[in-house]
Amino acid sequence: MNTNTTFPHRMIELVVIIVIIAYGAIACTPVPPFFPDDNLLLPSLSDDSLLTNKSCEPPCWYGVYPDVTPASEAEELVKKLPFVNPETVARDPRVDGSSDPAITWSFSGAWSSNHGGRMEIINGLVRDNRIFLPLGAVTLGSVLEAQGTPDLVVAGRDPESPTHWFQFYYGDKGLMLHGRKNGQGQKTATITSDISIIEAEYFAPRSLRGFLAEVRGYNNAAIIKNRVQTYIEWPDLDASIPLLSDLPR
Fold first, then answer.
1. How far is residue 115 from each of residues 6, 107, 133, 210, 235, measured CA to CA in Å?
2. Which residues pair with 179 in a beta bridge?
3. Cβ(194)–Cβ(169) under 8 Å?
4. Which segments within 158-239 are labelled E, that is strand?
5. Per-residue pLDDT tens digits for 208-224
6. How far apart are CA 71 and CA 239, in angstroms?
7. How far is CA 165 from CA 4, 108, 212, in A?
8. How far is it, in rounded angstroms, from Cα 165 to Cα 181?
9. Are 175 and 166 spatial neighbours (Cβ–Cβ below 8 Å)?
10. What's the pTM?
């Protein structure tokens, strides 16, 4: 027998057998299902301008100025942002046809299409710029350090859940922050630094009355007056404020 030729062959056969066994073991190993966290975004793939005033200060957002920037220019600016998935940038016509199609987009790292932004367009210009943030990514405390205290605040609750909703209004900055927090069993809302900011809304600086009428589109003076009366002056952190059964939108 010529061992010089059979030995290499046997070694090759042995390696092949080991590879086959290893592959079979891997293939038969159950893989746990992967359920992505709908609120998880990599820091580099989210928008932190609310905390850093990166590029420009509110109401400007990366060069987009409400009531100034044309929709076509805003759309091109959004496509170039590093945290935006350019394939998701689209125009979304309103059902009532009362304005130009809105510009919508999603974060590059978002599992949900609810994380991104929407720009309402009136007469060809950006009127309202809304950024939808993942839960827990931005807190009220961090925003207060960057933007200072708001002028007004209102809180409400969803009767079908333990969630408390908040709106923090910065009239001179043209900024409305939307927050939420678990408030199960509480009859009032407590303003704490850990409130999660889930939306930043940019608009040309206005009074609250002007914001409700010209940005939100309320056209009834009585409704506007009622809404304005639900907001209270900023009372500082750890203060408790009344809860509305229905938060004004």
1. 63, 6, 6, 28, 30
2. 166, 197
3. no
4. 163-170, 175-182, 189-190, 196-203, 232-233
5. 999 999 998 898 999 99
6. 40
7. 80, 27, 18
8. 7
9. no
10. 0.78
